[in-house]
Each structure stands twice: as C-alpha cells, then as structure tokens.
Write a structure and sequence with these properties.
Elements: H1 2-13, E1 32-36, H2 40-51, E2 55-59, E3 74-77, H3 82-95, E4 98-101, E5 114-118, E6 121-125, H4 132-145, H5 150-171
Parallel strand pairs: 1-2, 1-3, 3-4
Antiparallel strand pairs: 5-6
C-alpha cells in the first residue's frame, strides 16, 4: 500500500492535481439497474441507462426491505423525502450496491455528469454536484465545437486499433 500512496503523491506533485471525483466509464450492457421514482429525473436516468444496454427495472417507490438489492449492479433513486432517501441509501450501502440519489449529492455513491454523446466518443462534465447548470452550460459549449461525425471517427479508430497496435509492435517501436 505504501507504493500506492507514494504514486498518488507523485501524481499530485507532477500536475494531475486533486480530483473531487474520479470520472469512470462503465460497460453496462446486460447488467441489472434499478431506477426508483416517477419524476422526470428518474425517467431521464432510466432512458440514459437503457441507451447503454443496461437492463433497467423501474419502481415508483423503494422496494420492500426483504427484496434482494444485490441483484442490481447499481440503483438510481429519486426520492423527495430526505429521511426516506437516507434510509434507502443505507439499505443500498449495506447490500454493497452502488447508488445515486437524484439531486442529493450528499447521499450519492456515484454521480452522473453532463454528457456530450458522439459515441463511441463520450465527454462527461462534472461539478461534483455543486452546479449542474454550469455543467450543462459547459456541455452545450463542447457540443457546439465537436462535429457530429466525431462518433464515426471513433468507430473507425476502434476498427483499426488492433491493426495499428500490431504494426507498431511488429515494427519494434
């Protein structure tokens, strides 16, 4: 572990800087996701998850306590009542399930950022939940400068990747 800590401090010293969150990109194809709530926020998250190929299960309210939450890779919940949201977050934490409480950054294990979609090229912007409107403004700015065809370039790069890697390896570089 000391090596890990040393490496982290080296990264900070060499310009990475401190991150409030780690941006990750997850392959969710075929994984179970639970979305709780009937709000536009919950519906939007369900649509976003479906776009990744996740198997989205929707409920109007949190499932009964005896329901196995471990069947889900992660859960997104939009629960207006703060007490009820905190209680459900504790259940999810106890089950070892990653979770997001819509518009409650203090109750989230992960957060969604604003997304620029030129899949397979994807840009995600986060303000760590502090200013979603700012993240959306940045997203709009980035969308305006990235061409719609960028996804086609990314797909071409994916198709050529192994040939390029073999050519580099075979050349001795």
């Amino acid at each position: 572990m000391a090596g890990t800590c040393k490496r982290q401090s080296e990264l900070l010293e060499n310009g990475i800087g401190e991150l409030s969150l780690l941006p990750l990109f997850l392959d969710l194809k075929g994984k179970n996701a639970l979305v709780v709530g009937v709000s536009q926020g919950a519906k939007g998250k369900a649509e976003l998850l479906r776009a990744t190929g996740a198997l989205v299960h929707e409920r109007d309210s949190p499932p009964p306590v005896e329901t196995s939450l471990r069947d889900y890779s992660f859960v997104v919940a939009d629960i207006a009542n703060e007490e009820e949201a905190a209680k459900f977050a504790k259940q999810l934490q106890a089950a070892g399930v990653a979770y997001n409480m819509v518009d409650k950054p203090g109750l989230c294990e992960f957060q969604f950022g604003a997304i620029v979609n030129r899949s397979p090229v994807i840009v995600s912007i986060s303000t760590s939940g502090a200013a979603p409107v700012l993240a959306q403004a940045i997203r709009q700015r980035i969308e305006s400068i990235l061409p719609d065809s960028l996804g086609e370039c990314g797909a071409l790069a994916r198709r050529l990747r192994s040939r390029i890697m073999h050519a580099i390896h075979d050349s001795g570089l």
